[in-house]
Design a protein that fits this description.
Distance between the termini of chain B: 26 Å
Oligomer: heterodimer
Shape of chain A: elongated
Number of strands of chain B: 4
CATH superfamily of the largest domain in chain A: P-loop containing nucleotide triphosphate hydrolases
Largest interface: A-B, 34 and 33 residues
Helix content of chain A: 25-40%
Radius of gyration of chain B: 25 Å
Helix content of chain B: 55-70%
Radius of gyration of chain A: 24 Å
Strand content of chain B: 5-15%
Number of domains of chain A: 2
Strand content of chain A: 25-35%
Structural class of chain A: alpha/beta
Largest sheet of chain A: 6 strands, mixed
CATH topology of the largest domain in chain A: Rossmann fold
Number of strands of chain A: 14
Chain lengths: 311, 379
């Protein structure tokens, strides 16, 4: 079942085209990642879907209905975790969660239960009476998440929720997102951290300059790269005349020698590493450390756009 | 939902330094400052004798009677209301110009007044002259119609005169300095705009992350706005009541002699002030500097034009732009208090209160329409 559908969306800021005929579709139960460099249009897309931003052209449907600023019935099914922490400095952790939950849930007893569950979910049990200013960056992010999801929404938008968060809190947050998904929530997750997106998203749209450049599962996207394995071997004095022979090995697409490292790219096949190491051994080439790297989403991005994701 | 929003907004505002300062501390500070400034003259509960020049252009019984009456009328404490100076027109005009007299009474075929600066003295002189003319014409008319009933008319008129003198002029203890405190209360009401700015900031996605979160929530904008507004007005209103209590019972300033109407004015003033800030924030859309500039310009400008800093400015506005002067919220608040102090009936008070109420409602409506169904160009 389609939860969000965006067709041909165009958003302009004067001369700048922020979203350029962008289309995506998110199905129920997915953790859908929007991956792209800063300024690629991820947050703009999210804000358009949430009906915060005007857009020039296109159609947006949420739960099969057009999303408008006064679509309160739809909004009640949605939770939003914004990139900027949106809490009241003057209210405690519990009061903040209760306030925002109360904008969706009127039943007091139910709300209390939801608030307790949200506090437990983000691990803020020991901080319920703390004011936001007393919380560390990571705890503050967790509070921000709790405020967005306490009312148990069916659809959750998360806009870079792990920005400026320590590794421990980041893992906690990512595990929490997977748990929310297991509980039935559909999640749209934006990030420019490809590792996060790879880790938690079931389907990913890569966005650049306001366009969707690729959509698919992690494996489907990686299949778009010409390289399925990168082998890096430390060799101090390598005879570069051997490079053509290495290139002739099965499934090897390229071989180079740079800065005391032999770099071999392979496409498809199995046991590529063993084959390369056998060649070196048979040719009496001494080597040090050996690395075998699978392609990343950055490689996909590099392949399609010709630039690094973090450029 | 409304009470949920109300409860948490009260909590957050009470912990916001800026709102506590503007709602509670600032008016008390300013009130104390005013008290120190006017300390010597407060609590006299009377006004000074009014210097008036009489220019006799025609001898008549009516004119003699008018002068005689002016010499007789007294305040409650036995002090004469008018100090009469018999002058020729040129000297009288000179004195009026240098403000050593309040007005000139020209006694010709008609009684005509030339007034200097408007103020309490001028109001009393005008009221007195009007009252005398009305009474004289009434008796004259009665004599024309039925000469035999003239005594009845005089009797009725004398009773009415008694009523007018006791209630309109003597009924209220008039303290001119108290007027400054009324203006101060007016300004304190409008400074609720600083609390209103917080509300405006938190209702729009373009203004703050909290605004964005509230905008995407499942609660209607009107409910969000009204809950916040009610909370802010409650706090500001309680703050001002504390200020008034401080002025009345600690500093012993004779304000709020008619508590209920005065409370109504303060309440509407609070709505007006808070809503002013919210409206400015809604109109400025994202620019905090612009919001503060609009709020300050309106609240300070309004207070200045209402005569708080210089009574001349108020008179100038009354003359040059009477409609603007009438619609000025600070003027309306001050005028409500002034009317309660001076006039025995509530007509003028009701008019000013109505202006204030209508302006407050209009701002609420405009603010709502400014944020209703809003989508932004950028957030």
């Amino acid at each position: 079942m389609e939860v969000v559908r965006v067709d041909n969306l165009v958003k302009r800021y004067k001369e700048l085209v922020a979203l350029d005929h962008l289309s995506i579709s998110v199905n129920k139960g997915e953790v859908f990642g929007l991956l792209g460099p800063n300024g690629s249009g991820k947050s703009t897309l999210m804000n358009c879907i949430l009906s915060l931003l005007k857009y020039s052209k296109g159609e947006i449907k949420v739960f099969g209905q057009e999303m408008k600023p006064d679509s309160y019935d739809l909004k009640r099914k949605i939770g939003v975790v914004l990139q900027n922490v949106a809490v009241f400095d003057e209210l405690t952790v519990r009061e903040n969660i209760d306030y925002f939950c109360g904008l969706y849930v009127t039943d007091k007893a139910l709300r209390k239960q939801y608030v307790d569950e949200a506090i437990k979910f983000v691990g803020l049990e020991d901080f319920t009476k703390f004011y936001p200013k007393k919380l560390s960056g990571g705890l503050l992010r967790r509070l921000n998440i709790a405020c967005g999801i306490a009312h148990k929404p069916e659809l959750i938008f998360m806009d870079e929720p792990t920005v400026a968060v320590d590794p421990q809190s980041r893992n906690n947050i990512l595990e929490g997102i997977k748990e929310l998904n297991r509980q039935g929530a559909t999640i749209i997750y934006t990030s420019h951290y490809m590792e996060e997106v790879e880790q938690i998203c079931t389907r990913i749209a890569i966005i650049d300059k306001g366009k969707t450049i690729a959509v698919g599962t992690n494996d489907e996207l990686k299949a778009l790269t010409p390289t399925s394995e990168k082998i890096r071997i430390e060799i101090l004095d390598f005879d570069e005349s051997k490079l053509p022979e290495i290139k002739e090995l099965p499934h090897v697409t390229s071989a180079t020698y740079e800065e005391n490292h032999l770099l071999v790219s392979c496409k498809g096949g199995t046991h590529n590493l063993i084959r390369v190491l056998d060649y070196l051994k048979n040719n009496n080439v001494n080597f040090g450390r050996v690395y075998s790297e699978l392609p990343t989403l950055n490689d996909v991005f590099l392949e399609i756009t010709g630039k690094e994701l973090r450029d | 939902m409304f009470w949920h929003i109300y409860k948490y907004r009260v909590k957050s505002l009470l912990k916001t330094k800026m709102s506590v300062f503007w709602a509670f501390i600032y008016p008390i500070l300013l009130g104390t400052l005013f008290f120190v400034t006017f300390g010597n003259s407060i609590n006299k509960n009377s006004i000074e004798t009014i210097d008036v020049a009489i220019v006799k252009e025609t001898e008549s019984e009516k004119n003699d009677s008018f002068v005689e009456m002016m010499e007789k009328v007294e305040f409650e404490d036995g002090k004469r209301i008018f100090n009469i100076l018999n002058l020729d027109l040129k000297s009288a005009e000179g004195k009026l110009e240098d403000e050593s007299i309040v007005g000139i009474v020209r006694l010709g075929d008609e009684i005509t007044l030339e007034m200097g600066k408007s103020g309490l003295g001028a109001s009393i002189l005008k009221e007195f002259a009007d009252e005398y003319t009305r009474s004289f014409e009434l008796i004259e008319d009665a004599a024309t119609i039925d000469f035999t009933r003239i005594q009845d008319v005089i009797d009725v008129n004398e009773n009415r005169k008694e009523y007018v003198e006791e209630v309109s002029l003597g009924g209220e203890k008039i303290d001119t300095e108290a007027q400054y405190f009324y203006a101060l209360i007016g300004m304190a009401c409008l400074f609720g705009s600083f609390i209103g700015m917080v509300l405006g900031k938190d209702i729009q996605a373009v203004n703050s992350p909290i605004g964005a979160r509230k905008t995407v929530s499942g609660t209607k904008r009107l409910t969000l706005m009204m809950g916040d507004l009610a909370a802010a007005v409650s706090i500001h209103f309680v703050g001002l009541l504390l200020v008034v209590t401080y002025l009345k019972y600690i500093l012993k300033i004779p304000v709020f002699s008619q508590p209920l109407p005065c409370i109504a004015v303060v309440f509407l003033g609070c709505v007006m002030g808070v809503e002013l800030g919210q409206f400015a924030s809604c109109v400025a859309k994202g620019s905090e500097g612009m919001t503060i500039a609009i709020s300050l310009a309106i609240s300070l400008g309004s207070s200045a034009l209402s005569g708080l800093m210089s009574p001349d400015l108020k008179r100038l506005m009354d003359r040059v732009a009477p409609i603007v002067s009438r619609l000025n919220p600070s003027s309306a608040i001050a005028d409500c208090f002034y009317s309660l102090s001076i006039y025995s009936d509530y007509t003028r008070f009701a008019k000013s209160l109505t202006i204030l109420a209508v302006e407050a409602v209009v701002l609420v409506v405009l603010s709502f329409f400014a944020v209703r169904r809003n989508k932004y160009v950028s957030v």
